[in-house]
Amino acid sequence: MRSTEQLLVDRARLMGPNVSTFYDDPLHLVRGEGVWLWDADGRKYLDCYNNVPHVGHCNPRVVEAICRQASTLNTHTRYLHEGILSYIERLTATTDASLDTAILTCTGSEANDIALRMAEAVTGKRGIIATDATYHGNTALVSQLGKSNIPTVGFGLGQFFRFVDAPDSYRHPDPDGTTFAAHVAQQIDGLEKDGTGFAALVVCPYFLNEGFPDLPDGWLKPVAEVVRRTGGLLICDEVQSGFGRTGTHMWAHEKMGVVPDVMVLGKPMANGHPVGGVVANHDIVAAFRTGYRYFNTFGGNPVSCAAAMAVLEEIDDKGLVANAQTVGAYARERMQKLATQHEVIGDIRGSGLIFGAEMVTDRTTKAPASDFTDRVINALRHRGVILSKLGRHKNTLKIRPPMPFSKDNADLLFDTLDEVLADTSLHP
Amino acid sequence: MRSTEQLLVDRARLMGPNVSTFYDDPLHLVRGEGVWLWDADGRKYLDCYNNVPHVGHCNPRVVEAICRQASTLNTHTRYLHEGILSYIERLTATTDASLDTAILTCTGSEANDIALRMAEAVTGKRGIIATDATYHGNTALVSQLGKSNIPTVGFGLGQFFRFVDAPDSYRHPDPDGTTFAAHVAQQIDGLEKDGTGFAALVVCPYFLNEGFPDLPDGWLKPVAEVVRRTGGLLICDEVQSGFGRTGTHMWAHEKMGVVPDVMVLGKPMANGHPVGGVVANHDIVAAFRTGYRYFNTFGGNPVSCAAAMAVLEEIDDKGLVANAQTVGAYARERMQKLATQHEVIGDIRGSGLIFGAEMVTDRTTKAPASDFTDRVINALRHRGVILSKLGRHKNTLKIRPPMPFSKDNADLLFDTLDEVLADTSLHP
């Protein structure tokens, strides 16, 4: 087995420069089960970060579904198969009746790439608005949505994209969402005036990449009203926020009080098997598909659908949405207690199994403790707890574990975090 | 189980309009093994069409690799893992030394989307040239390469694409490739003059979608020379032509006498598990990745790499490239014999396990027998043999079976084809 050093050398040689790893001392993982991961030295880690293995690493139901179908038939949608139909029926049974039709893809990137073209097809316009602190995928078109990492190349597509300030409940409260709506309205106005025209607003309805600001239920209503009034589409990218992650609803857009025109799915959809999808009203799908026989060779294949179906079944059978709510509430309590002991915790946020704390050097000025947050994450990693950071200042702990995360797991996480925060050698 | 009629109704309802199926009477498949498929009524079909299950439907080695890794660990490349490195090492050991670095994706579309941006990154220009009878994928950018099915929407990206006549050895012979090279040179000239600039030529090196014209080895040399002289990149999309399909080489670009700047992989790479990739020189990968931390959540995950590795192992262990050559040569002999009996066969082409015949109503005028070809394919389907048609006139039988296809399988195919061609009720 290659050493960590050798792995890093070989990655640079075989995969090229600028390939991200997590942590100062990158992890070499070899095994996973539920909320646990093991490295090459046999060391065990509590996974508080990975949302792709939504129903747990190597979930037996999902593995069994993949093995069964992979050994029975794997082909494409130009032949008829029940798997894709049963899956779309079950998926759309969880959504508003207007979201009744789906296109299955292999990644959230492919799904967002379709969603943006749906907006162009419906509106005849090309202007897309997103927040300035998010990410929606990696195609030439979709990568333009990630303002902090826009490719240096991209066939000039940047001309169609506009950004608004990401919501920030801690530093710039906007409790009823009207400021956000006004900022979007301003960008729409600009797009209409400069001739680009407004096609769509794309948001993660719980703003996970933006640091999951503390927004009251129904917060997206004002901006949705602006989007509809001006003839654009509301695209909700539920790649991170969906499938019950927030604990209160299956889809975060329900929590935020809106029904999107297009819902985009990805990462957790099949627990790591490459599956993504777009759900929309039949008319919107028809607008996209008219004059274009979109076909995705792997998209909606029987194995992918079996894996995705097993995820929905597991969420239901194990009551994972309710678990997210219960454990999430417990985690917030434990974080509140930690905040009474550690001045560095400036703000606590989250819902269900997406939660975290913003680290500050001073609670009054709210100055971000970004470097400190980095040290905390690395210290946690060395104590066997895996998580990350995010937000505009990269000073928010990002805790987003597999959905079977328990109160015991939360206790281990917060006991360890308590130790790390008490280690004065790390302090800002 | 839903009836075929119900499946079609449910597809239109759940998947939207304009979703392709094969055959007048679409197939409802439920099981696959090797070169065989079974429908819902238990009827067995010889698969002479599907290249995605490259090493055979439900290949035991691939299924075992997927099950083993899916039950051990499935995560992303921000952690270290040997799987992706071992795979890229083995893959690049099959290519020219200059093709030494890879980015793994989930689909050929994602891979082509990267390849085009690599060309923009290296050249600083955006003009892309392809043939007028091909397809390279489905993203907003890549779908512009498929002239016969360009989406009605696409953020104006069509402005960067130019097309040249696909090679056609039957109707417009160009035995040394200089006419093709001259057509490409003309388009390059136009791109440079109109200010777009020339970035890349994208071709399937064996021109599968174009009807795999009968071109001598080394045929791409003149056009490659033009591309290099004018500072563009040669992108070889080996999604269909690679992994030994042509029988003579692992990669069709070797057969055609060139080394591409970027090689694109997809469909057969992991036997249907969603895997694609781009292989290029380290400098080209660096040009793309500089200033852009491209990351693909599912791309290069341990399960995908295990599946892809099993495909390479199976190709080697079973001698599938040599098998493609032997069985392909035998198939051509059998087709030649059929041509002496059936006037409708106008031209016979192919190499290895991509082969077929062009159907004409008149051997002198070479008038395409397109409707007849359609009837032949449907008749074969009803006799238990699955294949399709392609080419500009949709009159070329497209025979592209899984690589373990045997002489016995070829006998069954041609015996059945002989019967169908003898059925005068189908004739033009």
TrEMBL record, chains A, B:
The enzyme's E.C. designation = 4.1.1.64
Q: Which GO terms fall under molecular function for this chain's record?
A: 2,2-dialkylglycine decarboxylase (pyruvate) activity; pyridoxal phosphate binding; transaminase activity
Q: Which family does it belong to?
A: Belongs to the class-III pyridoxal-phosphate-dependent aminotransferase family.
The highest taxon in the source lineage is Bacteria
| Requisite cofactors | pyridoxal 5'-phosphate
Name a Pfam family for this protein: Aminotran_3
Q: What top-tier enzyme class does this entry carry? A: lyase
Give the protein name, as stated in the record: 2,2-dialkylglycine decarboxylase
The keyword Chaperone belongs to this UniProt entry's keyword annotation = no
Q: Which UniProt keywords apply?
A: Lyase, Pyridoxal phosphate
Gene that this polypeptide is encoded by: dgdA
